[in-house]
């Protein structure tokens, strides 16, 4: 996934929220748990993209994303982040999460191979990309809470 020029220029090394534990190490993984007000929890095993080259590449050229997996983009700042699907063959859902761990919006079923901007028009610090249909199937929506359990290790 490539971001618009402004969002990419803002990308760099990121620090995580203090309540989420230490910052992720390079080549990190994270267990991302989305909790709804109804008590439902959904877990995603995610690769972490936080360095500029990781943020730019994202899930480009990946044809399939396994169920229950995704990529967590960790930006160095909270702002409106914009994505596109130019070189991404797999359709995706995108969960935009603010610095406090609240889902501020969801883009569902982003169409592959397009340069149409994908955003929710609200500031976020994190974006979790998952297979298309994931958010709807699990009832994930704005207002849900996100917890991140950082894990080390290589890819």
Architecture overview:
The protein is built from 3 helices and 9 strands, in the order E-H-E-E-H-E-E-E-E-E-H-E. The chain has 155 residues and is mainly beta. A hairpin with a 5-residue loop joins strand 6 and strand 7. The strands form 2 sheets. The protein has a 7-stranded mixed beta sheet. The protein has a two-stranded antiparallel ribbon with strand order 1-5. Residues 1-21 have low confidence and may be disordered. The protein has helices spanning 5-10, 52-57, 134-138; strands at residues 2-3, 29-35, 41-49, 69-79, 83-84, 92-97, 103-110, 124-131, 145-151. 34% of the residues are buried. Helix content is 11%, strand content 39%.
Short summary:
This protein is mainly beta. The chain contains three helices and nine strands. The longest helix has 6 residues.
Write the layout of secondary structure elements.
Layout: E1 2-3, H1 5-10, E2 29-35, E3 41-49, H2 52-57, E4 69-79, E5 83-84, E6 92-97, E7 103-110, E8 124-131, H3 134-138, E9 145-151
Parallel strand pairs: 3-4
Antiparallel strand pairs: 1-5, 2-3, 2-9, 4-8, 6-7, 6-8
Which key features would you list for this structure?
39% strand, 155 residues, 7-stranded mixed beta sheet, two-stranded antiparallel ribbon, mainly beta, 3 helices, globular, disordered N terminus, 9 strands, 11% helix
């Amino acid at each position: 996934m490539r971001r618009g020029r402004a969002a990419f220029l803002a990308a760099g090394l990121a620090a995580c929220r203090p309540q989420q534990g230490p910052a992720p190490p390079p080549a990190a993984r994270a267990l991302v748990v989305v909790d709804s007000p109804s008590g439902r929890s959904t877990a995603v095993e995610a690769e972490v993209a936080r360095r500029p080259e990781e943020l730019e590449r994202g899930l480009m050229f990946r044809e399939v994303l396994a169920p229950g997996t995704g990529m967590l983009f960790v930006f160095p700042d909270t702002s409106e982040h914009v994505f596109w699907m130019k070189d991404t063959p797999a359709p995706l859902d995108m969960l935009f999460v603010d610095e406090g761990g609240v889902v501020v919006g969801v883009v569902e079923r982003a169409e592959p191979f397009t340069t149409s901007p994908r955003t929710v028009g609200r500031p976020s610090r994190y974006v979790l990309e998952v297979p298309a249909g994931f958010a709807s199937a699990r009832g994930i929506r704005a207002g849900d809470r996100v917890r991140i359990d950082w894990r080390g290790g290589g890819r």
